[in-house]
Amino acid sequence: MNLELLSAQAQTCTACGLAATRTHVVFGEGNPDSKLMIIGEGPGEEEDKTGRPFVGRAGQLLDRILEAAGIARESIYIGNIVKCRPPGNRVPTSDEAKTCTSLWLNKQLELLRPQIIVPLGATACELFMGEKVAITKIRGTWLDWQGVKVFPMFHPAYLLRNPARTPGSPKHLTWQDIQEVKRVMDALEPKAGSEIKTISQESLF
Ligand code: URA
Q1: Interval between CA 186 and ligand 1 midpoint (Å)
Q2: Mean pLDDT for the chain overall
Q3: What is the mean pLDDT of residues 150-155?
Q4: Domain membership flag for residue 41
Q5: Burial (Cβ within 10 Å: 0-12, 13-18, ≥19) of residue 9
Q6: CATH number at residue 52
Q7: CA of 120 to the centre of ligand 1 (A)
């Protein structure tokens, strides 16, 4: 099994009701050798249209956050808990999340074997970790999931609704969080074949 094959299989999935309303399955994309995988909740409208994760407004902000810390988007792997858009961007049900995780995300993780997972937002965190979480409490802390380092961060859609950059604001905390991710990523032994491209620019997103 490899990622391309798994992705090809996922394209025809009808295991849950989300299949009926999706345009594209959004399997995930990026560098399979990356130490880091970012996991969102599920595709939105733009992602459903294009079949690519995080390409709408929240995705563009995510790109700027990564870039500000010197992490090139294409150097890491980005995916979601559920691979099909929940109608109206509603939160995926726990049944949808469980079905999708057991069929696709778990296998994707087995193939990618990231050393760091960053779930974005409370919902992704909860669906991923399997327990209720307060994102304001656990963001910016290192957790363990089956031996993998997990570092929850705010969802960029939340940052779009909270644009202040004052100390202690969600954007300010996110700036600190992404630098911490970069610091730990750089300190880890590289996975064979990985290539982390850095950008010197340190502008705030
Ligand atoms: N929000 C998510 O959680 N995932 C995407 O791919 C896009 C927006």
Answers
A1: 26
A2: 94
A3: 98
A4: yes
A5: middle
A6: 3.40.470.10
A7: 9
Residue 135 lies in a domain: yes
Nearest-Å Rg of the Cα atoms of the chain is 16
Residue 81 CA to ligand 1 centre (angstroms) = 9
Range of the domain at 101: 21-186
Q: How many domains does the chain have?
A: 1
194: in domain: no
Question: Which token pair is 103?
Answer: 């069929």
Whole-number Å distance, alpha carbon 109 to ligand 1 midpoint, is 18
Per the confidence metrics, is the pTM higher than 0.90?
yes
Closest-lying ligand 1 atom to the alpha carbon of residue 78: 6
- Pocket test of ligand 1: the residue of 80, 100, 154, 161 to mutate, having most ligand atoms within 8 Å of its CB, is 80
Residue range 96-127, pLDDT digits in tens: 999 999 999 999 999 999 999 999 999 999 99
For residue 14, tell me if it sits in a domain.
no
